[in-house]
Amino acid sequence: MFDRRTVLLGSLAARAIALSHWPLDKAFAQTAVPLQMFVPTAPGGGWDQTARTMEQVLRAEKLITSAQITNVGGAGGTVGLPQFINQWKGRPKALMVSGMVMVGAIIANKAPVKLTQTTPVARLTGEFLALVVPANSPFKTTKDFVDALKADPAKVPVSGGSAGGSDHILLGLIAKSVGVEPTKLSYVPYAGGGQAVASLLGNQVAAGISGYGEFSEQVKVGKLRLLAISAEKRHPGIDAPTLKEQGIDVELFNWRGVFAPPNINNDQRAAMVALNEKMANSPGWAEEVKKREWTPILLTGDAYARFLQEETARIEAILKDLGLAT
């Protein structure tokens, strides 16, 4: 005969075994603790859009019950990154949204911390960049813009994200390709995409560079003119030639992904990877990606960590070549 204590212990052991085989994403969704999302930029920009889209899809797909988003903007994410590394370390249900911009900003700003100090979870989307001008601009084509750069780059202020980010890099590559010294460019950095768009609509700058998604609405209503995209070939649904089509041998790809804090264990990392894979393969995510004209480029776990190491080395070389790093 089994006494009551033996039966109780056996029941608990069976439950523990069952939970150990429960899918990680289901276990994640059922816990009451909200997913904490850290966005190291001001509201309105690409990383913030990514975080809020993720929250929407994760909740709709019932992969999480709730989420909290924290924005800490400044210097291409290098103001917020130390906080994420030092104050959020060990948190098992936390993600930071970041990407190529931060890699460049860390190098350009000589930040004391590195993105590789986090726990890479998943690369989610990519976005080719767009070169735009106000609707009343005298620049009707990219050639007009380039001719003005050649005449006097200081008189062609261009807005974009933080110094050293993908927008800044693209402008430098364009300049170098057409024989303009990159260090003579007039680049106007903003912490959030909303501010950069406002500078264009207010005619405070001559042109702007960012992901097409940040300009698309203003382009569609005719307030901004799209001159070119930095893709290898034309993108379906975007009525603009590539830089290469217009004789500028430049291609650049901005990517965004998520990172867990340092000091989480392998099981916690696996749970985060599973969560993001489930989201990235969901119908809801596919719909949002299409609507926002993002390109899905899912890469997770160790492969993503290797990509981050290679990308960091590549961007550092570009920045040094353009005079944006030493």
Brief summary:
By secondary structure, this protein is α/β, with parallel strands linked by helices. It contains 12 helices and 10 strands.
Structural class: alpha/beta
The level-1 CATH class of the largest domain: Alpha Beta
**Helix content class:** 40-55%
The helix count comes to 12
Shape summary:
globular
Instruction: Give the SSE string.
Output: HHEHEHEHEHEHEHEHEEHHEH
- Kindly state the mean pLDDT as a whole number? 87
Largest sheet: 10 strands, mixed
Predict the CATH topology of the largest domain.
D-Maltodextrin-Binding Protein, domain 2
User: What integer value in Å does the Rg equal?
Assistant: 22 Å
Number of domains: 2
Distance between the termini: 77 Å
Q: Give the CATH architecture of the largest domain.
A: 3-Layer(aba) Sandwich
Percent in strands: 15-25%
Relevant CATH superfamily of the largest domain: Bordetella uptake gene, domain 1
Which parts are unreliable, with pLDDT below 50 for 5 consecutive residues or more?
Answer: 4-25
Oligomer state of the chains in this structure? single chain
- Count the E strands: 10
